[in-house]
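Q: My labmate handed me this sequence with no annotations at all. I'd like to see what the chain might look like in three dimensions before we decide whether it's worth expressing. Could you predict it?
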Amino acid sequence: MTAASASEEGFGHEPVMVDEVLRYLDPRGGSRVLDLTVGAGGHARAILDRIGQTGLLVGVDRDGELLQRTASRLRKDYPQTRFLHANFGEIDELAGHLSPITFGGVLLDLGVSSEQLDDAGRGFSFARTGPIDMRMDRSRGAPASGLLKTASADELERVLREYSEERFARRIARAIVRERARTPLVDTHQLADLVERVVPARPGGIHAATRTFQALRIAVNDELGNLSRCLAEVFRLLDIGGVIVVISFHSLEDRLVKGSFRQGKTEGRLEVLTPKPVRPGEEEVRLNRRARSARLRAARLIRTTGQ
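A: Here is what I predict for the chain of 307 residues:
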């Protein structure tokens, strides 16, 4: 199934690099696959179409609201599919729920779902006015507005530099502190306008606020910490010969994945299937602009720790 046809199934978004995911995971009838970021279910649908009624897909997501909608859709055709509301960084908890099942394939798609981006109430995007929330799981933790309200200029600068490599981190951080002393920062449009006023225009480039929104989202959801914890433990859920596929959307994530796979190769545990990250083709990027920054890496487990 292509990205476009997956979208036509009614999942509200176009999953990225579906053909490449299927090529590396190679799911077949009866396979067991763990989708740790099932999101709106685009990749899951394509995998389920391959593994059929005799296979098992377990879909995990920390966004309980999105997970509920996805489960309702997928179970209509594949009632055996299991779903868990959990954080992929908490492998011990997941292993407890899944034991003694292990999997022939594991997928991590680290991108934000189009359903999340397009929901103004979630606050992930400045394209629509909404509260500055950005939590993947709205049942836990504080929204990004809390960070903007209480963090010092130095802390905000650190977040912007570390999580988005924003060149103008200090300028933006100081502007946020000045603005909040005058009036509360309450919605995405207000924040985007503020950043746009203090950051030089980037002709033909990304919107001035893109990196700021990315950094705040990563900080609020501890995305890099969760990815690091997952990569350290996820291989215990894989069968020998099983494949893990990770799709990342910025260099910070990709470096962690690359480093984990390289270490596994050095230790003789992994066969790296993608010496360089696989990128989406020109046609996919033309049809789905959100695919343009995607990078896919895959590795096969050939030996467990201690063997």
